Every structure is written in C-alpha cells, then in structure tokens.
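Quick review question:
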C-alpha cells in the first residue's frame, strides 16, 4: 500500500514538474525580409528536464490564414535538413492558396538552425581526413580529427550543442502550441522534419489534429540499416535514371550503355572520383536527370555543397546510434554499403552522416526505437517510390510499425520529397489537412 501510494505521489510530482513550464505568448511583428509574414520569438528551457533552468530564444514566423472566418487552426511546418529554416519555410510559396487561407502556417527554426542559436562549425572541418579510410591508421586519423572538431564546435556553440536532438525539438513544438493558444495542431514535416513529427506524435499524440510525414526518416534504424538502406535506395535511383536515358533521346547518354559510361567516368575522374559520386547523388535526388547525364558525359562541372555539416553533429548524432568504434566495425559497414550499392558505391548522405559521428562520446540522447503513437490520430505518411535519400522502404516500415495510426500514400515517381510533385500528391495531402480525408494509396508518376 505504501509502495503504491509512493508511486502515485511520484507520478503526481513528475506530472507537475512536466507542466511547470509557464504559459507564454509570442509578440508578433512584421518580418523584416517578408512583410507579409509575422516574426517573433519563443522562449523555452535549454534543458527540458530542468524547465526552470536556463532559457533560450527560438525564432518563429507565421503566415496568418487569409480567410479568418474559415480558419481551421495552426499548421506547424518544417523543411528538414537538419539545418533548414522552418521560419522561412512557413512563408514560402510551397503551400496552396486554400492551405494558406485556412491555416496559420507557423515555422520554428529548430535548435541550432536558422536564427535559433545556429551551430556554425563548417570552417573547423577544413583539412578533414578522408571519410573513406582504407586501414586502421586512416580510421584513427579520422577519429582524432573528429574529436577535435567536436570539442571546438561545442566550445564555440555553447550549451545548445548538447540540447539539439529531435526529442527537445518536439517539446519546443508543444511549447509553441501552448503559446499560440491551440488545443491541437496540424503538422507537415519534410525529410528530417519527419523526425520532429514522430517524436511529437509519440509524446503529445492527443494534441495532434493531423500530421503529414513526407519522405520519412526511420527512427528505428540501426547503423547498418541507416547506411545500407540508403545505399540500396541510391542504386535504385540510378537504375531509374538509366531507364530514362534509354527512352529519352535528349539524354546525353542516349544509345549508350549507361552503366558502362558511368564506370568510365569514374576512371576518368581519378582523384576527383568521390566528388563525381557526390554530384551524381545530388542530381539523382532532385531528380535532375539531364544534369546527371551531363556529369557522366563530362560536360558539366562537379558541384555539391552540403549545408548542414555543423548541426548534424548535434542532431543526427544524438538521434541515431552511429558510434563506429574502430576500423573493423567501419569496414563491416562499408562492405554492407558496397554490397547493396555496387553502382553508386553507397549513399553520400548515409555514409557522411555515419562517419561524421565517429568520435561522438556516450550513447545518443534520443536513441532510435520503434514508433509508438497509440494516442495519435491517423497520420499520413508520404514517399516517392524511388527516393535516394530517405528510402521508400522506410515509409513502408513506419506504416508497418503503426498500421492503425498511419496511412501510406505512395508516389510512383522519383526524387526526394513527394508533396509538390503532382496534382495527386498535392491534392491528397491538402484534402487530408483540410478535411481529414485519407487519400488513395497511390499517386501515379508525373512526367519525367
């Protein structure tokens, strides 16, 4: 009896501390760079386990519903990355007139991005050893270099560096809901923004009106799946590109064996081989298949400049168990990557994120796990069949983990992020957000 009473008291105390964060409102003013939008600041605890401790300011922007009489509520949005500015995304032209009419579209620059204490450490990575170590000595060089970058980046960024995982972002989202005075919110997240949505649905499912997860990241993936699934996906996209070249006369490689042309291009690239692979990955993700063909034909310059090198150290490395301890473990992962991706030699993003986390100490603060969204309404999961960045299999996996709380909409096309691809994908998502109507399971591919 005493033990039961003590348990109840502990639960009450915990619940009280979880609600200790005082209610607040956001002071809105016209955005300096976009007067049609309103900008403000959301103040939240740095560490949500200490709600009365140090506080930080997060940048917020909104586009108010243009038809207030028919306003549904708030649609929180995030473009992913990590590193994309959700505040800028909320004011972008992606959303249809009806969505803009019926919702206040709100974006919060997540911790470490945009105007929310942005983590900027790219300059510290100059001179990085290869992220494709050939032996134990090269792996040790990468490990020691990464450890130095992590130390310097943490010192430069301050305490936000250790409090930027997706779990903290989900709590920030609920603080925004309270500050906006909403009982429930709707949410649309793209790519890594789907991580924030999943964590929110797990912790605050009863506060979700509707949620769209487009190009979903599988938070249950272990290191081998994190790297291997993406490697397989990029080879799938290359196969689709080769089919396009076979049937499209405008392709710079039309009439040639595309796979042989690719292998020849890699030989010609010599020491620039990895840059060619990186640029090709970028072209497949668009997809920009004419550019991909020109890269292989040698008539386009190489280019790829990722914009999230810094924040991924504080976010991705804490959301996934990417702790490659030694060269033997790396060699095993690399072999799996090459087994599943013999053409493209693996996935740029999967490999780079995994090796960027080499040297990160301790277990992840927001470890991977199976999705648990029993309190959430039906969530719409959307994915292109041929997405080289977030594999279609990840969307299928998420749907299998929560079949009663998710619906899967498949775009039978190509590229990363499916929502704006066709009238079917856009119409299906909009109808769900506006009317809670579950769309048909399949949208045909658009012209390519």
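Suggested answer, residue by residue:
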């Amino acid at each position: 009896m005493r033990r039961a009473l003590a348990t109840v008291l502990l639960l009450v105390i915990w619940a009280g501390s979880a609600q200790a964060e005082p209610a607040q409102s956001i002071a809105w003013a016209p955005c300096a760079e976009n007067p049609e939008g309103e900008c403000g600041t959301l103040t939240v605890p740095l560490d949500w386990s200490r709600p009365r401790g140090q506080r930080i300011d997060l940048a917020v922007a909104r586009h108010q519903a243009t038809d207030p009489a028919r306003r549904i509520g708030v649609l929180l949005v995030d473009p992913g990355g990590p590193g994309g500015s959700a505040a800028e995304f909320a004011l972008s032209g992606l959303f249809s007139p009806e969505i803009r009419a019926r919702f206040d579209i709100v974006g919060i620059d997540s911790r470490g991005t945009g105007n929310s204490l942005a983590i900027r450490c790219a300059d510290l990575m100059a001179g990085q050893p290869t992220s494709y170590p050939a032996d134990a000595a090269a792996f040790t060089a990468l490990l020691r270099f990464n450890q130095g970058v992590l130390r310097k980046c943490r010192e430069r960024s301050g305490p936000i560096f250790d409090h930027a995982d997706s779990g903290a972002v989900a709590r920030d989202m609920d603080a925004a809901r309270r500050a906006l005075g909403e009982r429930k919110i709707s949410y649309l997240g793209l790519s890594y923004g789907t991580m924030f949505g999943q964590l929110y649905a797990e912790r605050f499912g009863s506060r979700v009106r509707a949620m769209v997860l487009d190009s979903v990241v599988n938070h249950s993936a272990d290191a081998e799946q994190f790297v291997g699934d993406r490697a397989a996906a990029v080879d799938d996209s290359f196969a689709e590109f080769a089919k396009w070249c076979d049937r499209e006369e405008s392709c710079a490689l039309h009439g040639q064996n595309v796979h042989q042309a690719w292998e020849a291009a890699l030989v010609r690239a010599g020491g620039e081989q990895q840059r060619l692979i990186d640029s090709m990955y970028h072209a497949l993700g668009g997809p920009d298949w004419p550019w991909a063909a020109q890269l292989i034909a040698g008539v386009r310059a190489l280019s790829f400049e990722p914009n999230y090198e810094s924040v991924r150290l504080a976010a991705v490395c804490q959301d996934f168990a990417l702790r490659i301890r030694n060269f033997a473990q790396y060699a095993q992962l690399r072999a799996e990557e090459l087994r599943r991706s013999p053409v493209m030699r693996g996935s740029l993003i999967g490999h780079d994120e995994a090796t960027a986390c080499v040297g990160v100490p301790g277990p992840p603060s927001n470890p991977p796990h199976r999705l648990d969204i029993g309190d959430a309404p039906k969530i719409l999961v959307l994915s292109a069949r041929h997405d080289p960045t977030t594999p279609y299999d990840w969307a299928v996996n998420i749907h299998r983990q929560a079949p009663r709380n998710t619906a899967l909409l498949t775009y039978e096309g190509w590229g990363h992020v499916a929502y704006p691809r066709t009238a079917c994908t856009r119409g299906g998502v909009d109808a769900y957000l506006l009317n809670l109507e579950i769309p048909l399971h399949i949208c045909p591919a658009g012209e390519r």
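Why it works: The chain is about 40% helix and 15% strand. The beta strands are 29-30, 38-45, 55-63, 73-78, 103-108, 185-190, 208-214, 379-386, 406-414, 442-443.
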